Structures
1.
Amino acid sequence: MLGKLLRWLRMLGHNVKYAGALSDNKLLKIAKIEHRILLTRDLELYQQAIAKGIKAAYIEGADEAEKLAKLAKRYGFPLEINLKISRCPKCNARIRPIEKEAVKGKVPESTYRYYDEFWECPKCGQIYWQGAHWKRISETLEKAKKLLEEG
Ligand SMILES: [Zn+2]
């Protein structure tokens, strides 16, 4: 349910585990054992976590910008993507820069011609570059920052 937010948080460098199909009890257990903050839109689950002394955030907000602004306010993290600490939105591993030559044939020809900087996920092999979608990413973060400033 929070898949989109999860990808955003990973891009921002946070270590976020996806626990889609797990039971509430299992979720609570993992959050406790691994010292994670449970992010949920399920009020009942949120209350259970709090009652058990597990850190949890009840996620509210109409869109990703709003959700990110609320989380950034609460936990005090910057709403900037720093590719040195970014994690793969797909699998949570930390991405790393990769030589342009190494992505030849792995990305569309036009992308290869146009871009010089690439990143690779060492776990799932996904290759990233600051393509056209980067503008939308920046816009969402700008919106989130504005919301944060407005309180
Ligand atoms: Zn990956």
2.
Amino acid sequence: MSLHSNQRVASVLDLIGNTPLIRLRSVEAQAGGNVEIWAKCEFENPGGSVKDRAARQMITDALAEGRLGPDKILIDSTSGNTGVAYSMIGASLGIPVHLVMPANVSVARKNITQAYGTKIIFSSEFEGSDGAIRLARDIVAKDPDRYFFPNQYANPSNPGAHYLGTGVEIAEALGKRITHFATGIGTTGTIMGTGRRLKEFKPDIEVIGIEPDDSFHGLEGLKHLASSIVPDIWKPEGIVDRMMPMATDEAWDASEALCKAEGIFIGHSAGANVAGALRVAREAGPGAVVVTILPDRGDRYFQPMKWEKHYLW
Ligand SMILES: Cc1ncc(COP(=O)(O)O)c(C=O)c1O
């Protein structure tokens, strides 16, 4: 969302990107001071998450190249935020959206996507996001002409959104003082695109990938690579300098602490990123300028009342 209140936009698509960077003073203090920790407020996107960027890029590139047209249904597997983004953009552009998601994703995610008119197809809750990917592939394989399958795990437009947007915005906002970029990996689009752009901008920026420390974890949106289908877009050579394992508890504690200390109510992958940025700043010491991402807001993880017209009175 733009910080300029005098802007006019043509549609909700124009509200995506150009998010502000916020300085995390309470986290800097824990790192011993004399460091800067900046976080990109991706929860400011109109669909509520960083995934608006990837979804917009995948859809607009496909429209421009004729892979998506008026007769096609957009289908994909998603752990949630990408589904919200597809649903929002699909509604705005008149594109029908079908989403495959594990039956146990949060009630909020199901309700939000359905509110935009999206159809949900449930995959096994025991097979996680990999099961959703497999089911989406099966559905498309049976009737390939009916669907546009963006496949965010293999689509270059996903990191492309961050190469063209997130990375440029960070470089322009902070310049060559940046020393580190640390962020969590899900599809890996954010780190691949932003990391590539920042490395081109200043090759000695260290890029750190944060991943759950175990296959069973509570960090929605993030992937434990060793136990997952490795995304095709994950090509870390020359982009990602090292990986950092993150415990669910440490990430959740960082989310809660940031909310109480600074009034920034973030989700758990954002907590992982803040905890990771703190570790990086502590290790690097005075002079470090660390950038991270706040992918979404904490209220997305509440169990809300169902948003529907069926009142009881
Ligand atoms: C809440 C949240 N955090 C982090 C990520 C990871 O971002 P990326 O898929 O670009 O690696 C996602 C992606 O789905 C997400 O939904």
3.
Amino acid sequence: MSARGGRLDVVVPSSSQLAGENGASMKPESDERYSRQVLFPGIGPEGQRRLLQARVAIAGCGATGSALASLLARAGAGTLRIIDRDYVETSNLQRQTLFDEHDAAESLPKAIAAARKLASFNSQIIAEPHVSDLRPENVGELLGGMHLVLDGTDNFETRYLINDYAVKNSLPWIYVAAVGSYAITMNILPGETACLACIFPEGPTGAVETCETAGILNSAVNFAASLAATEALKLLTGARPQIRRTLLSCDLWRNERAEVSADKPRAECRACGKRDFVHLAGKGRPHITLCGRNSVQIHEHHRPIDLSDMSRRLQPHGSVRHNDFVLKFWKEPYEMTLFPDGRAIIKGTTDTAVARSLYARYVGS
Ligand SMILES: [Zn+2]
């Protein structure tokens, strides 16, 4: 039986500050399901109860997000909020472990495909999909009420936004990244440890290696996610003294490892020292952005779009196909993916003017 239908006979540990309102329940089936994890002394029955009450946001559900969501769902984190703006493609399947060929053929939004897959192996937890781009306007709505945020993003702009929100609201989050054979992660406990802006006051400048340019080993992804998921388990079960207080990076191909202390916030830090949350204010967040190789995202129009209706309108102009979540329109040499909230990803150009004009011509300005 799914916990989605409502609360079952939930035993909320009164000592736990993690007790949520809609957490999954600890019932006899759970005893069996989590038995090997409960046997581990660091977790135990009390730790498992806390996990089942935990509310965790996975910000971005690509490669690291998939691995993080999968580990936490299997471990019994009661509510997982999956936030992702993108849809599944064949090139994702090498490392994005929650998706399959069917999801790619359907171009399903990653958040939807992820929630379905999570439910298929743990129907006792709640997996909440949000097909959304995390932005200053919606960060409060998407991350509010969570106990922890896990970084499944692929860019520093969104990470600084998460960091500003988390520091301002004393919400723990875990920075995770992987590129090539390199993995890096850091726990951020606002007010206690360094934040992302303490360690990296400015985002990387110049050419930054990404999965699109440097490639990526799936093992580096899963390694980074495993480190972070373990820290999440410590945090959610109350094992505070065990939480790692360093920025840890490893290159799995070159056999290199480095650790930098992140034990204390930096007094002059913009975010946790001066409490200047520029990224929450949305400065420098254009509504039209490059998004991966050879594609542009447009989200300047917030208008609900009826995908069946739009599909009929676009029929005479190219090939078009849609399902409940997404519409695809091919107009050589471009491919437009349209979401019900009016957001679009246009492939085949890096020119924002070209993308905007295509959008205006076919969807409306
Ligand atoms: Zn800081």
4.
Amino acid sequence: MSYQQKRWSLTDLYPGTKSPELASAFEDLSTLVTAFEARRPECNSEIRAEAFMSIVKDLDGITVLVEKIYSFCGLYFSEDTQNQEAQNLMAKVEQFMAEIGNRTLFFELWWKQVDNENAERLIAQSGDYAYWLQAMRLFIPHTLTEPEEKIINLKNVTGVSALQMVYSSITNRYVFKLTVDGEEKELTRGELMTHVRESDPEVRAKAYQELYRVYAADASILGQIYQSTVRDWKNEQVGLRNHKSPIAARNLINDIPDQAVDTLLDVCQKNAPLFQRFFKLKAKWLGVECLRRYDIYAPVVESDKRYPFDSAGDMVLDAFKQFEPRFSKLAKRVFESDHLDSEVRKGKRGGAFCWPTGPDMTPWVLLNYQGKADDVSTMAHELGHAIHSMLSEEHNIFTYHSNLPLAETASTFGEMVLVDYLLQHEEDETVRRDILFTQVGDAYATILRQAYFALFEREAHDLINKGASVDELSQAYMQNLKDQFGDAVDVSDEFKWEWVSIPHIFEVPFYVYAYTFGQLLVLSLYRQYKEEGQDFIPRYTKILSTGGSKAPVKVLSEAGIDIYDPAFWQGGFDVLKGLIEQLEEIPVEK
Ligand SMILES: [Zn+2]
């Protein structure tokens, strides 16, 4: 099979931006929403199950069409973000969607007010919609009266949301200076951070020092913004909404029980020494006594192997096929439907994504393929997402998307399958070593680093609510780094400002542990696969094909996984231990 690197086709959605089909889709949507609004008087607690389901199905139909139109415009915009027609279309569609959202909102508001007995009666008859209906009601105990909710919304716009905007305005204006090849350059943060992966140790150190020089200059103001954000979170989530703790509010959004999150973070802390062992090994490979924090992402004798697009496609499909032929067939569907945009073009959106547009359609995948080993992994990752969606296509528009903590399962698992395949087929030791080092390094960044951010957040929320100053928070952050790195990494003083540079902890408190959860889950699943072989596959496929039609705990417990059990999470770390042991066996070259 030989695939070309090219632009995707969107004709499975609409023939074009000026097509009569797209124009009439907008009109159809308006008609459907008007008809839906007319059903409002039917919404009362005594409604018959048939009538209720017919309202739900109407909303389903509206949402399917919304997704289809929105996806078409969003994908078209991604093809060329500089295209003014695409920009205008995007603005139009966003305005239109906001209006539709407001006009259909009454259903959710009403549904949360239905008494438990009637809600259970209706859920029992709702088939595949059950979890979606239940999940909306999880927030009832934490919902205030309508006037109170309105006041919070109104005051948030000029309150905490405005503060978060100020944070992002301040930090997005930053310009970083770095001397590259004898010439001083002005860089964005993204550009600056590419230099921490360079082979010159001096450049890596300079890049970090510059990053924190700039953040430290504003640390007291950024720290104040954080303190207020944290106090606001507590006042609202704990004080007004009755969540047990600041992190519990996020756990409910993820629908993961508090105790499971605590167990996850505990196991991570216990495994900090495992990554310390990795960093000590890395120091040997870099020929230094002790690794500096600057060197965490340093390349270890990087291989310059390149993979042409068609052979990368073959490798990924072949790796999937070796795992389970059905996975390979589904991934092929993306290529064959012409839903893959892999070219590098000016104006095209950077990075990579998979965009599912509805349960009845093959998802679209965007890559900027340049032939590095990383690009092949990214291909496996995004196709993994696509497979996940296609496996859950039996569900409805509200339940085929998996919950956040499970959203990265198939993608990360796909990468693992590819890595295994590459290690099996690669004879060049340098390339093998590069693959292993990259894998463990990436696992550090998504598992342990994010877990320690979450641990810091938990502590910072506590400290701030007891009146801690910005300097005290920085001290706590340094202690957090010391716990994480032990004597394996030398952390210089400016890293005490790292926390003020992490947008997630400002903008979405406690979001970061979802990364830890997802990656560690995949590693643990992978270990089960290695142990059980083919027996594992039906269980795994079932997890994926459940989509978002059940609570994460339930999806996993039905597959025999107990996320309350530390041993399950430890299984993930054991996979990494195996990889580190493989690396330790290779004689160090200097
Ligand atoms: Zn992903």
